[in-house]
Amino acid sequence: MIFANVYVTQPLLPTLAREFGISALQSSWTFTVTTLTLGLSLILYGALSDALGRRGIMILTLTGVVACGIGLSLVQDYSGLLVLRALQGLMLGGLPAIAIAYMNDEYSTRALALAVGLYIGGNTLGGIGGRLIGGFVGDWLGWQGAFVAMAAVSALCLLTFILLLPKSQHFEPRPLRPAAMASALGAHLKNPMLLIAYLIGGLNFFIFINQYSYITFVLADAPYHLPASLLGMLFLTYLTGTFGSAISGKVADYLPQTRAMSVGILVLMLGSLVTLSGSLWLIVLGFFMNSFGFFFCHSTASSWVSRNATHAKASASSLYLVFYYLGASTGGFYLQPFWAQWQWAGVILGSLIVLSFTLYLTLHLHQRSQRLT
Asked: Is 357 in contact with 366 (CB distance < 8 Å)?
């Protein structure tokens, strides 16, 4: 539900650009503003859940997501659309800020890596679902119809969540102390084992998700001329990400997590190069590779943070997601000059520059972890 709502506008970007007479970068703000407010809200929710509990906050914010979805289906102008998407982003932050901490409370250490992998695999299915709804319903009923469908699906997901989520059995509340919250966040940022993982997750997403935004304009134009429904189908490439996330916990039994992160980034770099082919099928293959590599690395890095945080684990996981979503909301601005100068080849050049840096960070993190052991 969360990630379907985040990504529902991505296959609609060319449609929104035409509808409102705006540029490619401006139309991408419907995605950017949501990930930005989502990312900024995560610190607050993580800290509140440490004091007030996990389940109630998740249910309250999911209810807000549904309310915003209904409002989006009624909006008439682009500025109103952006305001509601920003507000929806604030509501969308509730569950991802808390879910891994909830699992950390309830699962054994051995089970946690597998649980996180399956959870992130579910995230990829949501991302696919939202884009398919945006693409197919947007083609059929227009962009407002896509929001109607998304709100209906979200309401059904909310009801299911309320009925099926078990109450916390092992949660231990801590007093809500703003000074202590700030101190915990500062300690996480000063911990190189966590900070490097934050940078890896944030910068990888900075590139990965914004490649999808720019490729929609490539494939909507000559010689492909794909409609929104088929652009939505491109996001079925996330299925390899679902697989990569699900197996990451098992791979951690055989390969150090730092090495697994490196492997994921290398696959992401190779897939990016494959997309430079003019063949539609090779572009799709490249995105299948990108999705596997990115989510394999992301799931591993997320689990790494949970394992290596010595205290305030919800805040540590939330801070990882802050970097993650701030990366998503700023990557389009970084890639825009490359796009303006060299189109898709420029996007890949800009991507490889950043991915080379995150690959270096995984090697540095491996060296640090080896010294500590």
From this structure: no
Q: Which helix (H) or strand (E) holds 192?
A: helix 192-220
What are the backbone dihedrals phi and psi of residue 194, each rounded to the nearest 5 degrees, phi first? -90, -45
**Paired tokens of 20:** 């409102």
pLDDT at residue 200 tops 90: yes
Long-range contacts of range 348-353, CB-CB < 8 Å, 24 or more positions apart? 348/272, 348/273, 348/275, 348/276, 350/207, 351/207, 351/211, 351/272, 352/269, 352/272, 352/273
Helix (H) or strand (E) holding 113: helix 109-132
pLDDT tens string 31-49? 889 989 998 888 788 778 8
Domains in the chain, please, with CATH?
2-164+178-372 (1.20.1250.20)
DSSP, collapsed to helix, strand or coil, labels residue 175 as: coil
In one-letter notation, the amino acid at residue 38 is L
Q: CA Rg, the chain, in Å?
A: 20
Q: Average pLDDT of 135-163?
A: 94
261-293 pLDDT, tens digit per residue, is 999 999 999 999 999 998 999 999 999 999 999
What pLDDT does residue 66 have?
97
Amino acid 190 reads K
Contact 209, 334 (CB under 8 A): no
Token pair 């305030």 is found at 312
Do 216 and 14 contact (CB within 8 A), yes or no?
A: yes
Whole-model pTM: value is 0.81
Question: For residues 34 and 87, is the Cβ–Cβ distance under 8 A?
Answer: no
Please give the Cα distance from 126 to 1 (Å, whole number). 6
- Burial of 142 per CB tally in 10 Å (0-12, 13-18, 19+): middle
Element (H, E) at 259: helix 257-274
